[in-house]
Amino acid sequence: MKKKILALTLALALSLSLAACGGKDAPGQDADSGVPEVNAPEGGAPEGGAPEDDAPEGGGTDAPDASAPEKGGTDSTETETSEEINLSAFYNTLREGNIWPELMDLTTDANMKELLDSYYPGLAEIAAKQRRVYIAAISAAVGEIALVEVENAEDVQAVEDIFQARIDYQVGDDATPGGAWYPETIEGWKTKSRIVSHGNYVMLAVGDASASAVEEFEALFA
Predict the structure, then answer these.
(1) Other C-beta atoms within 10 Å of 205: how many?
(2) Helix axis angle, 87-97 relative to 210-219, nearest 10°?
(3) What is the full per-residue pLDDT of the chain (222 aa) written as tens digits?
(4) pTM to 2 decimals?
(5) Which one, of 138, 215, 116, lies nearest residue 184 by Cα?
(6) How far apart are the first and last CA of the chain?
(7) Comparing C-alpha atoms, which of 146, 149, 154 is closest to residue 85?
């Protein structure tokens, strides 16, 4: 009987011992959270962590590219556009500074369009930002001013050709009398006509003050 009691006592003691061992924390486990710890490899970052940056020697910086222009800077290759010249105002300047015969405006009055097309065929069809034509009110007088600013530079030559055709018609030739009709007027158109252009601007000046008009025209772009 004593042997049985001793055997039961040893069995109970062994059971209690095993239960105590089972209550201890498992290796590598957080006793509070129950989440396994991550073991970092020796000398490296923890597994699953962010890799180290491949920074260049000397340390990398996030400085902006030196070749990129600063915000708000001005592109040195950008060209400045010249201010548009008011041809009506320039015409008034010519009239004030020189002697011209009485001139009629063919371009601001719609009733004059037919006359403009007759004297300067094709001029109204050319795309222009400004177009001003002034002819002598008296046919016997030598005086005419035509000013055009074309929209497209390639039309400058076309305007010059129209202006030259106007001179040729007024002067005429040996077979055909000139439109100026009178010998003195024809001579004035032959010797006192000037065509000049600068950029998209073209001028025809006819009369005693034509040379001075050319100088003033060129001065606009100096």
Answers:
(1) 26
(2) 130
(3) 445 555 555 555 545 444 444 444 444 444 444 444 444 444 444 444 444 444 445 444 444 444 444 444 433 333 333 579 999 999 999 999 899 999 999 998 888 999 999 999 999 999 999 999 999 999 999 999 999 999 999 999 999 999 999 999 999 998 888 999 999 999 999 999 999 999 999 999 999 999 999 999 999 999
(4) 0.64
(5) 138
(6) 135
(7) 149
**Residue owning tokens 């800077």:** 73
* Eight-state DSSP code of residue 72: T
Please give the structure tokens belonging to residue 39.
Answer: 């073991």
Return the amino acid letter for 122: G
Q: Which two tokens stand for residue 73?
A: 């800077």
Residue 171 CB neighbours (<10 A): 20
What are the tokens at 164?
């030259």
Q: For residue 8, how many other CB atoms are within 10 A of its CB? A: 10
Cα separation, 216 vs 192, in Å, equals 16
Q: Distance from CA of residue 110 to its chain's centroid?
A: 35
Single-letter amino acid code for the residue at 155:
D
Q: Which of 109, 163, 170 is nearest to 140 (CA)?
A: 170
Helical axes 183-191 vs 156-171, angle rounded to 10°: 150
Output the six-digit token pair for 59. 């340390």
